[in-house]
Amino acid sequence: MQQTNPQSLQNGKAYMGTQSQSSANNIQRGDPTSSSLWRSGMGQGYEVRTQQTEIHHSTKANKHKIAKAFRTTSSEALCVLAGTTPIVIRTEEAVRRFNLSKGLGDSTTPVDRDVEPKHWPHPVDIAPVIEVQEYEYINIRMFTDGSKSELGVGAGVAIFRRTEFVTQLQYRLDSRCSNNQAEQLAIVKALEALDSLNIDDNNQRTAAVITDSRVALDSIKNTHNHSFLIEEIRRTLWKLERTRWNVVFSWAKSHVRITGNELADQLAKAAARDTDKKISYNRTPKSTIYKELEDEAMTKWQKAWEGSPEAALTRQFFPSIYDRIKAKLQVTPNFTALITGHGKTRAYLHRFKLLGSLECPCGKEDQNADHLIFRCNLLQQQRETLKKETTKLGPWPPNKQELINKYLKQFMNFANSIDFELLQ
Ligand SMILES: [Zn+2]
User: Fold this and answer.
1) Which of 148, 194, 229, 374 has the highest Cβ tally under 10 A?
2) Distance (Å, rounded) from C-alpha 260 to C-alpha 210?
3) How far is the CA of 422 from the centre of ligand 1 (A)?
4) pLDDT in tens, 140-178
5) CB 26 within 8 A of CB 8
């Protein structure tokens, strides 16, 4: 296996930087070492099984650091505390991401990949993209819009000759397509429609595409953007220029009651809802597929967590991985000791033969997490504070899951206020 060196750490960060930002800031998605594994996945195929044990060990030290945990804490509990997807699940996700980006793997979904460099137009074959603020002098005005909601994804075009309505166009996109794609498809279709208007007088061949999508306009102007629909727009623009069409773009703020704009919006929405309409565009954005892979990884992690024979106590606090990822946790050694039952408590020290008796100095019962949080007399004062703060919001005692989901700050204060030295 490759050694983790600073370079691969860097790559790891750059790679992880492309992730969706949905996870909380303090969450480390994936271990730094996964990048070297990810790269080996590129060259030599999928070597997870053989490397698994080694990786498991090298990353466990990291998670110990993040979770501030004792070395005996199970890997499953460490992952949950650190908010780090277990390496095997993470690697499967990375390999599938890679395969998708290269058009490999088992997916039958068409992916909206960038156009390959060999198909890019030569720079002299690119029509200039001109943006204007006024289009009053333009003959043909084409208002374009996209719409995405839970009802579907649609694109609409309303075409006017000066102020006279000429025609309308509607398209439905696959439900996994994005609003951006719908905006762009509307522009492609508007441009393609120009020829069918049969305007023979060259002086009359002026057209404006009026969109409310700043993103679409900026993407068309951005010469580094080679996504499929943007290249389609460029290709069509070039064809139009060669047939003496003079096309400009204009950005219109949405919802400012421009008739053409509103009409395009209505057309897009109606197309999105119309389930009888055939799908005109079905390439799924990579971002959507990556998000689905992430969700799938999360589901796998949840299943593994529920089925794990380890970490029963930690699971009582964190039954849901999803909730854990959402929570902003600043773990401390005291917190970790209470959550994992590893380190600090007498029950733990006894279990690992570091102490003869596991009874709490309060004399009541064994000193474990439950005893400390809910019953130990020696922590009466701290518990009163916790109780005062939590009973404002719910009954006492809360269960362990509520301590995290509802009262994290208060519970954190409680955990950090415990002086374990005095409890030995
Ligand atoms: Zn006690």
Assistant:
1) 229
2) 9
3) 11
4) 999 999 999 999 999 999 999 999 999 999 999 999 999
5) no
CA nearest to 187, candidates 206, 175, 171? 171
| CA of residue 346 to ligand 1 center, whole Å | 10
Domains of the chain and any CATH numbers:
6-111+292-307 (no CATH), 117-283 (3.30.420.10), 332-423 (no CATH)
CA of 403 to the centre of ligand 1 (A): 20
CA distance 112 to 6: 33
Phi first, then psi: what are they for 290, rounded to 5°? -65, -40
What's the pLDDT at 267? 98
CA of 378 to the centre of ligand 1 (A): 6
CB 228 within 8 A of CB 219: no
In the reported structure, the alpha carbon of residue 286 is separated from the centroid of ligand 1 by a whole-number distance in angstroms of: 55
What is the structure's pLDDT at 19? 38
Q: Report CA(352)–ligand 1 centroid distance (Å).
A: 19
| Low-confidence residues in the chain, pLDDT < 50 | 1-55
Ligand 1 centroid from CA 328, angstroms: 29
Q: How far is ligand 1, taken at its centre, from the CA of residue 388, in Å?
A: 20
Give residue 69's pLDDT: 66
pLDDT of residue 277: 96
Name the CA dihedral angle for 6, 104, 117, 186, rounded to a multiple of 10 degrees.
-110
pTM for the full predicted model: 0.66
